[in-house]
Write a sequence for this structure.
C-alpha cells in the first residue's frame, strides 16, 4: 500500500514539491516501511543518527498505526538517519518510547529516502486504521502535511478518531500475529 501525503493537516492541497510518500508492506518479520520525500534542508537533530526523542520537532515523516482500544504505534523517520518509535495506549498516553528499529536513510540532491522494518511485537494487532504525516520548516514557515486530514483549531496528529479504516486489517504476512 502506498500513501501519498499531499495535503496540509486541515485538508488544503500542498505544492507537488512538498509531497511525500510512504509505502507499507506486511512481511513475516514486521511492517516494511519506505519513505520517499522532498529534502527541505531543515537543521538535523543535535544528536547522532539513531533513536531520537522529540524527533517531531525536526524534518520528519510519520506513520501512525492504530488497533483496537485506542492502542497505536507512532513511527517517525528523518532524512539524517534519526528515528523514533512510540507505543501508545490511549490518545497521547505513551507506554513505551525509543524502541529499537532497523532503519536506514539517504539524502540524494533534493530528495531523501528512508526504510525501516517495524517488528510486529511493537505494533497493535490487527492494525485497523492508519494515517501518515510529514513535517518540515522552522518557525513561522513550519508546515504540517497529512495523508488523511485531521482538521481542528491547530495541527494535531493524535486525532485518531479521524484516521481512515483500512479495507482489510494489516496482520503479519502468513496469517500470524
Amino acid at each position: 500500500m502506498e500513501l501519498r501525503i499531499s495535503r496540509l493537516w486541515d485538508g488544503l492541497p500542498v505544492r507537488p514539491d512538498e509531497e511525500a510518500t510512504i509505502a507499507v508492506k506486511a512481511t513475516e518479520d514486521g511492517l516494511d516501511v519506505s519513505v520517499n520525500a522532498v529534502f527541505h534542508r531543515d537543521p538535523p537533530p543535535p544528536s547522532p543518527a539513531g533513536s531520537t526523542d522529540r524527533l517531531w520537532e525536526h524534518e520528519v515523516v510519520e506513520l501512525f498505526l492504530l488497533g483496537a482500544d485506542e492502542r497505536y504505534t507512532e513511527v517517525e523517520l528523518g532524512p539524517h538517519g534519526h528515528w523514533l518509535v512510540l507505543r501508545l495506549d490511549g490518545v497521547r498516553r505513551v507506554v513505551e518510547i525509543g524502541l529499537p528499529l532497523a532503519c536506514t536513510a539517504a539524502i540524494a540532491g533534493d530528495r531523501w529516502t528512508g526504510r525501516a522494518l517495524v517488528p510486529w511485537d511493537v505494533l497493535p494487532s490487527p492494525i485497523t486504521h492508519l494515517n501518515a504525516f510529514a513535517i518540515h520548516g522552522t518557525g513561522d514557515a513550519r508546515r504540517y502535511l497529512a495523508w488523511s486530514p485531521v482538521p481542528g483549531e491547530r495541527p494535531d496528529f493524535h486525532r485518531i478518531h479521524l484516521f481512515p479504516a483500512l479495507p482489510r486489517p494489516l496482520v503479519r504476512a502468513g496469517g500470524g500475529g
About this structure: The chain has one domain: 2-167. The CA atoms of residues 50 and 67 lie 26 Å apart. The mean pLDDT is 95.
